[in-house]
Write a structure and sequence with these properties.
It is found in: Periplasm. Helices cover 42% and strands 18% of the residues. It is an alpha/beta fold. It has three domains: 28 residues; 152 residues, D-Maltodextrin-Binding Protein, domain 2, CATH 3.40.190.10; 146 residues, D-Maltodextrin-Binding Protein, domain 2.
Length: 353
Amino acid sequence: MHRLKKLVKLLLVIGLIFSLNSCGRATTKKQTKVLNVIGWSEYVPQSVLNQFTKETGIRVNYTSYSDPNQMLSKVMSSANGTYDMVLAPGMYVQTLRKLGKLAPLNKSDLPNYSNLSSAALSKPYDVHNRYSVPYLGTVMGIAYNVKKVKQVPTSYQDLLKPEFKDNLVTVEDSRAVVGSALMATGHKINDTSQQALSDASQYLTKLKKNVQVIDGDSPKTSLINGQVSAGLIYGGEIALAMENDSDIKVVFPKQSTYFCYDVFMKLKKAPNSANVEKFMNFILRPKVSVKVSKAFPYCNPNRKAQALLPKQLKDNPAVSVPTSVIKRSQTVVDLGKRTTKIDAVWNKFKNSN
């Protein structure tokens, strides 16, 4: 009888341990109902994140940045597993791959990938489309207020005119701004030769006299509130400014223009890896993609979503970028160690008086 009691006690203890282990496993499973994203500020509608959470039970923790260099610094300085995925300019596919940070996507979990336009795929930074999903396209255009600008600026050189002294805004994006300066002086957007960078730096020195605001979060704001009369900023920001003030218009420089897609990427050792494709596939649903465009009217690469866009977005050249502009556009690629040369030009521009 005494032995029987001991046996019963032993079985109870074993049962308790098993129960605790099961709870531990259940807790671990529950913890995977999360997705950690690092991406541009003011770029993914909270309503879209909320809808994803409502449908899947997966909570999205969104960490924002205003400068891609800031994003890279955060990803590289954080422990593995801090972030599951990145939303950044396409060139960072090359950058993060070289640093051993990216994992290939599981295409079988992305049935909505077929909704993407072929024009947005097979880019130099991801030729075989293994590591990225295009989110929105970004073009650099010139925004101006018709009531404050005497003559429509049609080239980069026009932005150097005295009438724009201390009256311009530009984005806080080294590759977009330095790239525009390179194209303004007749060079290719990825040219890092001594002559090209010297010419670009001289252009930016002149431009800086006219720049009042460098804004990586919301460059449209200084246009809307009348703080500046014009700016060299992203098309989506121009479109939002136009919605707020009908006096704000867009024009694209007659030279080449900066254009790139911001893309989603999956990080290696992502603790919530399976949730990455779930979120990407959700974003690629046409109606969800339209909701994104309504909130942030950048160039939409989702061909099925394009057909559903409201007329005001279809007719706005800042959103539906003209084919002629796309054809003369250039995109940035990873420059490896030569990136420091771009950074030097950018820092000189940004920190000069």
